TrEMBL record, chain A:
Biased composition regions of type Low complexity, renumbered to the chain: 236-252
Keywords, comma-separated and alphabetical: Acyltransferase, Lipoyl, Transferase, Transit peptide
Keyword Repeat applies: no
Cofactor: (R)-lipoate
Matching Pfam families: 2-oxoacid_dh, Biotin_lipoyl, E3_binding
Molecular-function GO terms, alphabetical: acyltransferase activity
Enzyme class: transferase
Domain Peripheral subunit-binding (PSBD) residue range list: 167-204
Protein name: Dihydrolipoamide acetyltransferase component of pyruvate dehydrogenase complex
Matches recorded under CDD domains: lipoyl_domain
Biased composition (Pro residues): 222-235
The organism of origin for this protein: Potamilus streckersoni
PANTHER family found in the cross-reference section: DIHYDROLIPOAMIDE ACETYL/SUCCINYL-TRANSFERASE-RELATED (PTHR23151), DIHYDROLIPOYLLYSINE-RESIDUE ACETYLTRANSFERASE COMPONENT OF PYRUVATE DEHYDROGENASE COMPLEX, MITOCHONDRIAL-RELATED (PTHR23151:SF90)
UniProtKB/TrEMBL annotation, chain B:
Residue ranges of domain Dehydrogenase E1 component in the record: 62-355
Protein name: Pyruvate dehydrogenase E1 component subunit alpha
EC number: 1.2.4.1
Function: The pyruvate dehydrogenase complex catalyzes the overall conversion of pyruvate to acetyl-CoA and CO(2).
Keywords: Oxidoreductase, Pyruvate, Thiamine pyrophosphate, Transit peptide
Highest taxon above the source species: Eukaryota
Cofactor(s) the protein needs: thiamine diphosphate
Keyword Oxidoreductase: yes
GO process terms (BP): pyruvate decarboxylation to acetyl-CoA
Classification of source organism: Eukaryota, Metazoa, Spiralia, Lophotrochozoa, Mollusca
Length: 498, 386
């Protein structure tokens, strides 16, 4: 009631009520004042957000609100999967979720795309108008993404000519000089038409230019594999198909941007996940750049099985795989050249032995790392591997837990594979593939279980002798497992027993 | 016909009575009770009975809505990659800057940390100035050179990136004010995370020794980045951390309480020396735009604060219950604010950026006209202006 008078104003209130006939019920006057908010704010567009500075597109996994639901500020709207993580998207606006334009499991939604519409409360949300122009027409500064992200190939149109010439960085200038190029010969892809180092490297590769000072030699991509590679050349479509490219031209291994690769079309009902793409890219890179060589050894697992049984009686649960990891770790310490990384310029010897263990998950193969394996006891290795494997299957590994590592072990023994060879994980130097045990006879005709291990190694780093030495040490430790346990708690257990 | 007449007769006495009643209350104030203040080394504190006139109430409401909307829009612009770099949002803490600004004058100085967009606006920069600064345009309040953490205006010293660095600076500003014999104070704000920094205590010491007119304010939103206050500080009674400096604890979600406490503090400080205020508040967003804000606290907690302690909502209830405004009026203010902020955002997105020559300006004050500055290597050199 009081509020109603406010509208009319102080002095006029009495008079107006006397003079003006009003068809109003005696019920509260307040209800007259709260009229429907039709179109007070219009519809709010919800665009695909950039949830991290490097994100260019993502997948909408699940919507937590349905069309017609009331949304309060701060509510969780949907889950968005980016190249790095699954992040929830909140809304700051309140209202009713009128229309969802990109439903659950929409993949490859670009930043800035319209994904939903919100209307004010009280409005008829079913009659919301979907804007036809759903493009995010932003300035060049937003659409040009720095070449660090693998996006669509952008040759930047030279807008804002005022900025073009002066923004060349010192490394770019140096490269221009060394390779005898001028700024005009290089297409720029940086903001405001700036030439970036990646652009020059691209041109160098395309034209197979040679550096003025140094002997002419075809260099592979100078950037080490771990940081993001330079942008792919425009003719990438032809480069993807064959796994074995002719050595002479050696195109950059990076695949074109994440549009579904050709393999994807054959499996109509299995769309490629991010993990699958990354695996495909890295394996191709590995097989085509690294000259693989293989050495195989087989060894008697009898002693290991016996020791394992002993430990089980002591309530220490370990598996043969843990012994393999430990033996490999010690062998890596003894033959340190195998425990190295190839970074294009030099062989980088790792100071610690970090062994990546291949774990099969529903999404693909992932390799969590057992750090400092040489100094862990077998029981510790066992616990670490179990924990990592569980978390890998639940997709809960953190980035540092599967990126890195200096050596990989892949064990297909549980599938009954007797022997196989694995693909090296760049920039590591070697990977060991372990098969299952088989029953044979030894020299005396007694039954013996043996196992085969194949080491795939990078011929640029190791030669046959070094690789063989490594496998020999590995076999020695597998056949004398007590040596692997020196210094750990379990050796005390065993020596007490014995 | 008859019903209408009857209705009129029915209404008439009520209207007469009602308007006379209302005539008395139209321009007067409403009184509210705040939460009790906690005091440290003070005999008397600010009054828990606070009054508010209609104009004041609507003004604070509008200001807080502007800040809330501006921060929302800043968040959306960041997600659309129109704003890059750092962006720390003030949503949820608006009552502090609004209440304090109401208690001080434009001649008093304020210095705060990087969660400064709200303060920049309240100290006099337009929404367009703030948003254009965030998007890095020449029309921003620092000509686009500062960005989120370096916004300044008269008697507002920013906008400081280093945690806790602004507190000794605030003591220095107070020193200058006292030295120049001005009857003004300096508000030096910091967060609960910065409250454990050493230089704060150095500043406390000097300001108490020389009786500087500085009000230290700890905006305690419960989290220093992702660490809750209990996990970061041995003593979470931040208002007592000044030790020999008297302290007041204020409910930072109540704009009137904040105003009252700041008035009391300003009064005290001009006579006796520094004072420390702790304002208990909450931020809805994460620490910055790269923090979703839900990995160290639950959504339920955020929702419950939004539901029960939201400063704008509390002020709205006060306005409605005292009869100073109606739902419709407030909704009109909301839509007005929204329009203003959205227009400013559009301008901020489309305004021209700085020309490249600006890179070399504002380095030296009043440089000689033939001076040239060097770039990152000897081949880059350009003329400069002050």
């Amino acid at each position: 009631m009081a509020a109603a008078y406010m509208k009319v104003g102080r002095g006029f209130s009495i008079l107006n009520y006397l003079l003006k006939p009003r068809k109003v019920s005696a019920v509260s006057h307040l209800s007259r004042n709260i009229r429907k908010q039709c179109g007070l704010y219009g519809t709010t567009k919800i665009l695909m957000p950039a949830l991290s500075p490097t994100m260019t597109e993502g997948t909408i996994v699940k919507w937590y609100k349905k069309e017609g639901d009331t949304v309060n500020p701060g509510d969780l709207l949907c889950n968005i999967k980016t190249d790095k993580a699954d992040v929830g998207m909140d809304t700051e606006e309140g209202g009713i979720l009128a229309k969802i334009l990109k439903p659950d499991n929409s993949a490859d939604v670009q930043i800035g795309t319209l994904i939903a519409l919100l209307v004010e409360e009280g409005e008829d949300w079913q009659k919301v108008q979907v804007p036809t122009e759903v493009v995010s027409a932003k300035s060049a500064a937003q659409t040009t993404v720095s070449p660090q992200t693998q996006t669509t190939i952008v040759t930047e149109t030279h807008e804002e000519a005022g900025h073009a010439a002066s923004g060349i960085g010192p490394s770019v200038r140096k490269l221009l000089e060394e390779y005898g190029l001028t700024a005009g010969q290089v297409t720029s892809s940086g903001p405001h038409g700036r030439i970036l180092k990646g652009d020059i490297l691209k041109v160098i590769k395309q034209k197979n230019l040679q550096r003025k000072d140094i002997k002419a030699k075809l260099k592979p991509t100078p950037a080490s594999p771990l940081p993001p590679p330079p942008p792919p050349p425009p003719v990438s479509a032809t480069a993807t198909a064959s796994a074995k490219a002719p050595v002479k031209t050696l195109p950059p291994i990076t695949r074109p941007p994440p549009s579904p690769p050709i393999e994807g079309e054959e499996y109509k009902d299995i769309p490629n996940t991010n993990i699958r793409r990354v695996i495909a890219k890295r394996l191709t890179e590995s097989k085509t750049t690294i000259p693989h060589s293989y050495v195989t050894i087989d060894y008697n697992v009898g002693p290991v099985t016996k020791l394992r049984k002993q430990l089980t009686n002591e309530n220490v649960k370990v598996s043969v795989n843990d012994f393999i990891i430990k033996a490999a770790a010690i062998a890596l310490q003894r033959v340190p050249k195998v425990n190295s990384l190839w970074n294009g310029e030099a062989i980088q010897m790792s100071s610690t032995v970090d062994i990546s263990v291949a774990v099969a998950t529903s999404q693909g193969l992932i390799t969590p790392i057992v750090k400092n394996a040489a100094y862990l006891g077998i029981d510790e290795i066992s616990l670490t591997v179990k924990d990592l494997a569980t978390r890998a299957r639940d997709n809960k590994l953190q980035l540092h837990e599967f990126q890195g590592g200096s050596f990989t072990i892949s064990n297909l023994g549980m599938f009954g594979i007797s022997e196989f060879s694995a693909v090296i994980n760049p920039p590591q130097t070697a990977i060991m593939a372990v098969g299952s045990s088989r029953l044979t006879l030894d020299e005396d005709g007694k039954p013996q279980t043996r196992m085969t291990a194949t080491l795939s190694y990078d011929s640029r780093v190791l030669d046959e002798a070094e690789a063989s030495e490594f496998l020999e040490v590995f076999r020695d430790f597998m056949e004398n497992p007590n040596l692997t346990m020196s210094g750990s708690r379990m050796s005390k257990l065993l020596s007490a027993k014995n | 016909m008859l019903p209408a007449v009857r209705q009129r007769i029915l209404i008439f006495p009520k209207s007469l009575f009602g308007s006379i009643y209302q005539a008395n209350n139209y321009a007067t104030e409403a009184t509210f009770k705040t939460q009790p203040y906690k005091l440290h080394m003070l005999e008397n504190g600010p009054s828990t009975e606070v009054t508010m006139t209609r104009d004041e109430g609507l003004q604070y409401y509008r200001q807080m809505q502007v800040i809330r909307r501006m921060e929302t829009v800043a968040g959306n612009l960041y997600k659309a990659k129109a704003i890059r770099g750092f962006c720390h949002l003030y949503s949820g803490q608006e009552a502090i800057c609004t209440g304090m600004e109401a208690a001080i004058t434009k001649e008093d100085a304020v210095i705060t940390a990087y969660r400064a967009h709200g303060w920049t606006y309240i100290r006099g920069v337009s929404v367009h100035g703030v948003l254009a600064e965030l998007t890095g345009r020449a029309s921003g309040c620092t000509q686009g050179k500062g960005g989120s953490m370096h916004m300044y205006t008269k008697n507002f010293y920013g906008g400081n990136g280093i945690v806790g660095a602004q507190v000794p600076l605030g003591a220095g500003i107070a020193f200058a004010l006292k030295y120049q014999k001005k009857n003004n104070v300096c508000l030096a704000l910091y967060g609960d995370g910065a409250a454990n920094q050493g230089q704060l205590f150095e500043a406390f010491n000097m300001s108490q020794l020389w009786k500087l007119p500085v009000i230290y304010i700890c905006e305690n939103n419960g989290y220093g980045m992702g660490t809750s206050a209990e996990r970061a500080a041995a003593s979470t009674t931040y208002y007592k951390r000044g030790d020999y400096i008297p302290g007041i604890w204020v409910d930072g979600m109540d704009v009137l309480a904040v105003r009252e406490a700041t008035r009391f503090a300003k009064d005290y400080v001009l006579k006796h020396g520094p004072i420390l205020m702790e304002t208990a508040t909450y931020r809805y967003s994460g620490h910055s735009m790269s923090d979703p804000g839900t990995s160290y606290r639950t959504r339920e907690e955020i929702e419950s604060v939004r539901g029960k302690r939201d400063p704008i909502f509390n002020l709205k209830e006060k306005l409605l219950s005292s009869g100073f405004s109606t739902e419709q009026d407030l909704k009109n203010i909301d839509s007005d604010v929204r329009k203003e902020v959205d227009e400013a955002a559009e301008k901020a997105k489309s305004d021209p950026e700085l020309p490249l020559e600006e890179l070399y300006n504002h380095i030296i004050v009043d440089p000689p006209s033939d001076m040239r500055v060097r770039g990152c290597d000897v081949t880059i050199s350009a003329p400069t202006k002050g």
